[in-house]
Amino acid sequence: MSLSPSLYFLLSVALAAPKTSSVSTSTTSSTTTTITTTASSSAAPIHSHPSSVYHGSYSGTPTTTGELRATSVGTGVSVASPGPAATTYPSDGKLHDAQPAPYVPAGGVGLNKSPVYNVKSDFDYQSLALGLYQEYIELDLFRYGLTEFSASDFDAAGLSSVDRYLIEFMAEQEIGHATLLSNILGDEYAPSECAYNYPAFASVREYVDFCQKLTRWGESGVYGFLPHLESREAAQLLLQSISTEARQQLIFRQFEGLFPMPVWFEVGIPQSWAWTLLAPYVSSCPANQTRLVWQNFPALNIINNPVPAYANATPAITQNRSTPLSQPGGQVNLVWDAPGKPVGPNNSYITSTSAGRPAYVAWVTQLNVTYSALTISNSSCNNGKNITYASTTQPNLETFSGDPAINGTIFIAVTDDDPFLTSYNLSLINDHVVAGPAVYQAG
Ligand SMILES: *[C@@H]1O[C@H](CO)[C@@H](O)[C@H](O)[C@H]1NC(C)=O
Ligand SMILES: *[C@@H]1O[C@H](CO)[C@@H](O)[C@H](O)[C@H]1NC(C)=O
Ligand SMILES: *[C@@H]1O[C@H](CO)[C@@H](O)[C@H](O)[C@H]1NC(C)=O
Ligand SMILES: *[C@@H]1O[C@H](CO)[C@@H](O)[C@H](O)[C@H]1NC(C)=O
Ligand SMILES: *[C@@H]1O[C@H](CO)[C@@H](O)[C@H](O)[C@H]1NC(C)=O
Ligand SMILES: *[C@@H]1O[C@H](CO)[C@@H](O)[C@H](O)[C@H]1NC(C)=O
Ligand SMILES: *[C@@H]1O[C@H](CO)[C@@H](O)[C@H](O)[C@H]1NC(C)=O
Ligand SMILES: *[C@@H]1O[C@H](CO)[C@@H](O)[C@H](O)[C@H]1NC(C)=O
């Protein structure tokens, strides 16, 4: 990222915390890739990250378990009604207040004070720390595929050396994003890179599909909290990184021959949804890593999730997808775990739910949250844990006329109720989540 002198000034003055370890700004080596940046001496340094990362499961005993908790924990967020003032602005195209200056309309937030690019609340800290976990796994995942598969494996999947370079460049983007978030959080306590445990990818296609799904929840996880941050300064910079991540997600879709952007709006999800999806792939973190507050819901698996590889499309800018991957009315088969399972870094987080009996499937896509009825097939006890099989039917809805809401890479969860929720209050769904989310490959 090339910074304008004024932004660089703000970043270096307001953000740069003392580094506990130094890293060469000219060369960073990993097991596979060597990044040679041409950074001038005036560029801010990148954050240190390990040159080689362990991959595999964690078999030790965690030194601590459970999510981070404050000394006092309430029973729920109380939501006030918006009040009459929420709808009094006339919205008629006329100016209703004196202008502070020519060309400047009255209003706006944060325009009359000098920005400070830090976190300003526990909500901000925990949200950005979650974002940092995500940037780090992306950095590792992008490099991992380039080591795991040979050039000829990639060639066989229709991905050439320039495509592989693009994945390597995406890894470099993640170094930048991780540096930015570490600087905003403060280097001393910001989470570090962890060790990861990926599925056994049988092919480049499977790897690319996993990248496409992982970047989807990375992107959507940020959209869910961005407008709720206290720190609008942090939101500004995070927005500019997540816009890059959105491009990565789209490119991975093109790499696996999916229609690049089959929706009109990109979906946002709550932090605990992103953490539920991410944590199973983090095997262990450094000893002094701070802990996250977010919930890990029981894992939800979609037994018959549409598989993009079946479409047999080759990488392309776009596709004629006359046969959709999924259809309204299609049956979706699900299985989920009971709560109480160790998950995530060092198996030190425990899955939980505060919901009642499973009754619905929530479909979170584009601007919509909609529900379908759940039919329980059977449940069985496995090692004292209740595993439930159920099914539902893919709903049919549009955002605006002409835009079927369920398409692309979306999220579903099993819930006990069907509360009316919209993009800005979606996190109120968490009390109702029995299991999930899972990533549904609708198109
Ligand atoms: C997680 O595992 C790492 C590597 O074995 C260890 O250094 C660290 O202390 C562990 N953390 C916890 C919370 O158990
Ligand atoms: C999803 O979008 C693609 C591309 O526009 C389209 O071909 C397909 O029919 C859509 N799927 C559904 C279920 O609407
Ligand atoms: C955490 O551990 C790393 C590696 O040992 C060390 O560089 C860093 O200073 C430690 N941070 C804290 C807050 O103890
Ligand atoms: C896509 O393929 C279908 C079926 O072969 C064909 O009818 C349609 O005209 C194609 N659409 C475009 C835009 O090429
Ligand atoms: C439970 O339902 C699943 C999915 O329908 C099925 O595969 C499985 O055999 C069933 N198990 C029992 C014990 O009925
Ligand atoms: C398992 O959970 C399902 C869904 O909540 C419930 O219907 C069933 O009675 C439970 N089975 C056992 C053995 O607890
Ligand atoms: C989907 O979201 C759009 C935009 O908020 C809304 O107009 C529409 O009514 C929603 N559709 C359903 C079925 O909830
Ligand atoms: C979520 O927001 C919508 C307004 O967009 C409101 O109608 C709904 O009642 C809210 N849901 C809850 C559970 O507060």
TrEMBL record:
Residues 1-22 form the signal peptide. Keywords: Signal. Residues 21-47 are annotated as: Disordered. Pfam families: Ferritin_2 (PF13668). The keyword Signal applies. PANTHER family: PROTEIN RDS1 (PTHR38705:SF1). This is Stress response protein Rds1. The lineage of its organism: Eukaryota, Fungi, Dikarya, Ascomycota, Pezizomycotina.
